[in-house]
Amino acid sequence: MIPTWWPVTLSALLFGIGLFGLLSRRNAIAILMCIELMLNAANINLVAFSRAVTPQLLTGQVFAIFVMAIAAAEAAVGLAIVIALYRNRERIVVDEVDLLRW
Amino acid sequence: MLDLTPLIPALPLTGSALIASFGRRLPGQGAYLAIATLAAGWLISAGILWETLTHGAHAPHWERSIAWAPTGDTILRMGFALDGLGLAMLLVVTTVSLLVHIYSVGYMHGDPRYPRFFSFLQLFSASMLMLVLADNLLLLYISWELVGLSSYLLIGFWFQKPEAMRAAKKAFIVTRLGDIGLFLGLLTLFNAVGSVAFRDIFAAVDTHLATTMVSFTLPLIGKVVWPLAAVAAILIFFGAMGKSAQFPLHVWLPDAMEGPTPVSALIHAATMVAAGVYLVARMYPVFHYTDHGSVALAFVAGIGVVTALMAATIGLVMNDIKRVLAYSTVSQLGYMMMGLGVGGYTAGMFHLFTHAFFKAGLFLGSGSVIHGTGTQDIREMGGLARRMPHTYWTFLLATAALAGIFPFAGFWSKDEILLDAWLHMRWVFYAGLAGALLTAFYMGRLVIKTFLGEPRREDIHAHESPPVMTVPLWVLAFLSVTAGLVNTPWKPLFHHYVSFGHAQAPPFSLTIAAAGTAAAVLGLLGALAVYRWEWVSAATLRRTFHPLYVLFSNKWYVDEILYALLVKPLFAVCRAAFAFDRWVVDGVVNLVGWLGLVLSRIQGWLDRWVVDGLVNVVGYTVRAAGWLLTRLQTGLAQTNVLLAFAGLVALVWLLVYR
Q1: CATH number of the domain to which A15 belongs
Q2: Please, are residues B183 and B243 in contact by the beta-carbon 8 Å criterion?
Q3: Which of B90, B339, B369, B631 could serve as B344's disulfide partner, Cβ 3.0–4.6 Å?
Q4: Contact A19 B645 (CB under 8 A)
């Protein structure tokens, strides 16, 4: 059985990459993809810890399924926003979307 | 009936307030209400008279008072009292006032301030009735000033006329001059007796007022030693001199004729000016503090004689119908004072009683003439007898009464004064006789020039006045004929009501009566000779007695002398006070103002730079902080996420390491 720290490390790496992408990318699609990365990093963590702490229960795995469902819904909403953005501006660069400013 | 007495002044007082408040909305613009209040007062007075008459013709004795302003040990009592003297005055005041009210309905018809006129008349009647009923000197003084005020208001009723305004002010100020004396007299008595009630004052006359001697120095006379009563009496008499237009304070009365004629009749002939005579009569125990030779009474008699003669001579040459009557009033008031001064208490008051009726009649008659012709100058009249028969006959009857023709009212009262003068002060008798002669002469002249002969101006179309004016005239004419009969030597009814001590009416003397009548007839014949039959023309008389004519027509220069002696020094004092005010008082005020200005400048600077500075610093700080924080608000989602993540890290760090 592989030690727990392997998947956790993988998860941390994925989350770091996702976070970096989320903060640095200007393309809205890329940002959505980064969010998916971070969610899946969390899923790996859930499964890994479930396996390590309560191997006889499937709580972590089931929770991961739920997260995937939510991620799918999130992607749908996110893409809809991106399309709306594109229709208005013909670009999907998030730098330019700063209407929430003071 | 006696207990209704307080209503007599209370009703007109209420009427005055009501008419002043809602005059225009009351029926007849308040005139009916005014007449009703006085009619009620007259009925009550007449009822009291009837009651006493049916109970043996004794003077009533009624008084009610309440504690007023208790200050320490001194408790002032205020109240009303009614005795024979008061009852006589009540009848005079209510009768004349009622008739004048009725007459005014016609005379003041169409005046823009009609309700106000009735409100003032009511105020006057109320004050005068209160004056008559007062049971103490203080209430009398208050009412005294109130009648003065209403007189002022009514003389100046047509205040758009500058002369009327000036006359009103003159009347008020000149009478105030006398009132100072009255007030000092009041204080003297209060100081000596400790009470202002007439009862207490009179009780104190024998115990100490007559015996306490006061010595002081008078200008022109030197050091004198008088009993306190004499001092108080003379001080009080100054008040009476002002109100009753006695020399030298008579100057206001002729000018007061600027007021509406009903006012002249009511206030400046029949009632208010008689208040001075009433005051002397009311305070008679103080004046008459000793049976042999009172300084105060001698003073009263002397002033009375001077006034009676001086005013009569001026009356000879006046050409304004109302002014002739005004000087006649002054003269007759002098006559009353004369009567009181020689000890004829009943005689003086009796003359007041009869005079009120015939003088009111004369004034209302003159008002009717003025109403009918539109002029007051007798040189422009003449021949009015045919045009205004009612006015003529009533005027003639009242003139006969004033001249003292038997058996008209004036005869009986004048005769009684002359009789008392003959018995007590012989020289006053001769002066009185001369006064009677002059009175008859100027009244004859007035009647002849006004009513007889041919009209002197064709453009005046005289017309008789309406019945609302002629009916009061006839009532007064009737009273002028009959009022004297209440005190004939055979049936001295008036004497039962108004007498001092237990004095008996002096025995009738045919000689005196004949002398008085002779003087009156002589005067009338003289007037006829000059103005009707023209045996001697008036112009010749004027030329022959030119210095006298100048003296009389300039009213003995009393106005001018008073001006030089009183008004000018007063103006000098005023000017000095004004200078003091301007340079010293204003200087101090300005200095204070300037200091205030400087202080406020300093304070303003502090406020602007220190207080406001602090506030501004706070404001600037907040603004700067806000500006810094706005830098965080980029509006970019990524910045928000970054910050959220930073916050998460910080929270985790806090949770784990703290």
Answers
A1: 1.10.287.3510
A2: no
A3: B339
A4: yes
Q: Could A102 and B641 be called an inter-chain contact, meaning their C-beta atoms sit closer than 8 Å?
A: no
Alpha helices, H only, B251-344: 252-255, 261-265, 274-282, 284-287, 295-317, 321-341
Contact B634 A101 (CB under 8 A): yes
Contact A23 B638 (CB under 8 A): yes
CA triple B508-B269-B488, angle to 5 deg: 15
Q: Is residue A62 part of a domain?
A: yes
Among A41-45, B563-567, B654-658, name the one with the lowest average pLDDT: B563-567
- Domains contained in chain A, number: 1
The DSSP letter of residue B503 is P
A98 and B636 within 8 Å at the Cβ level: the answer is: yes
Which member of B633, B636, B642 has the closest CB to residue A94?
B636
What is d(CA B646, CA B630) in angstroms, rounded to the nearest whole number? 18
Highest mean pLDDT (candidates B73-77, B499-503, B511-515): B511-515
Q: Quickly list H helices, B425-567.
A: 426-451, 467-482, 493-497, 510-527, 538-544, 546-553, 558-562
CA–chain centroid gap for B85, Å, is: 20
> B82 — alpha (psi -120 to 50), left (phi > 0) or beta?
beta
Q: Does some domain include residue A16?
A: yes
- pLDDT surpassing 90 at residue B635: no
Q: Would you state the structure tokens that stand for residue B396, as one six-digit string?
A: 């003639």
pLDDT value, residue B261: 86
Q: Which chain A residue has its CA at the smallest distance from B638's CA?
A: A23
Structure tokens at B146: 């109130």
Distance CA B371, CA B648 (A): 110
Q: Which residues of A touch B630 (CB under 8 A)?
A: 102
A85 close to B (CB below 8 A): no
List, for residues B315-360, the tens digit of each pLDDT value. Answer: 888 888 888 999 999 999 998 999 888 888 888 899 999 999 999 8
Closest among B149, B395, B193 to B285, alpha carbons compared:
B193
Give how far B594 is from chain A: nearest CA, Å.
Answer: 54
Least confidently predicted of A88-97, B388-397, B516-525: A88-97
**CA–CA separation, B150 vs B127, rounded Å?**
8
Task: Report helix, strand or coil for A102.
Answer: coil
Contact B633 A101 (CB under 8 A): yes
Mean pLDDT of B395-401: 91
pLDDT digits (tens, 9 = 90+) for A43-99: 999 999 998 888 888 888 999 999 999 999 999 999 999 999 889 888 888 877 777
Residues of A in contact with B635 (CB under 8 A): 97-102
Spell out which residues of chain A touch residue B633, defining contact as CB-CB under 8 Å.
Answer: 100-102
Q: How far is CA B300 from the centre of its chain?
A: 20
Q: Distance from B631 to chain A by nearest Cα, in Å? A: 9
Q: Flag whether the ipTM exceeds 0.95.
A: no
- DSSP per residue, B159-181: TTSHHHHHHHHHHHHHHHHHHHH
- Chain B contact for A23, CB < 8 A? yes
Owning domain of residue A30:
5-96
Cα dihedral B80, B86, B90, B93 sign: negative
Q: Could B636 and A97 be called an inter-chain contact, meaning their C-beta atoms sit closer than 8 Å?
A: yes
Query: Does residue A101 fall inside a structural domain?
Result: no
Please indicate whether, in this complex, the C-beta atoms of A98 and B635 are within 8 angstroms of each other: yes
Exposure string over B572-591, b if 16+ CB within 10 A, otherwise e: eeeeeeeeeeeeeeeeeeee
Residue B30's nearest CA partner among B14, B8, B43 is B14
Say whether pLDDT at B632 is over 80: no
Q: How many CB pairs under 8 A join A and B?
A: 28
